[in-house]
Amino acid sequence: MSLDSLTASFPDAAKDIRLNLSAVLQAGVLSPAQRWGVALASAYAARNNDVIAAVRSAAEVELLDGIDPVVADAQGAAAVMAMNNVYYRFRHFMGGAYDSKPPRLRMNKLAQPSTDKATFELISLAVSAINGCEMCVKSHDQAVKHAGLTDDHVHEAVRIAAVVHAAAVSRELASGVVASDVQP
Q: Which pTM was predicted?
């Protein structure tokens, strides 16, 4: 599925998302690997196969031979943040005795990205924003700034994450069934 066919499937209620998706994926302050890594990881985090396929297809066109490290980091960030965001959100909510307990969760991908540390941290920040983990967003924000990225990089990454997430919701709206409509 292409991005054009994906957005064409959105209902009129998602016209803004249709327009925003192509806009946020245009070149800006992010490198192509950062832009497409954030978009792809956001699609994985949003868990919609059509959005994943459309974003990956567009990324493959722009990145050509450089797609494999970006895909590896997008998948790695989506998987590790799925775990970390739940754990650290819990710690943030609960505080107290939980703050001193060691996570004892493997996170080797954070130390061994396929692209570079700044790109992986930026991708992780975007996924953490989708998953709503304040502690993780702040931690990744510090890491990307330490790696030399700016507020503009973070802002652009989170805009992409927001719109890709909304694209997944829009695709579900297009199917006519959304999770909240399903009766147990």
A: 0.92
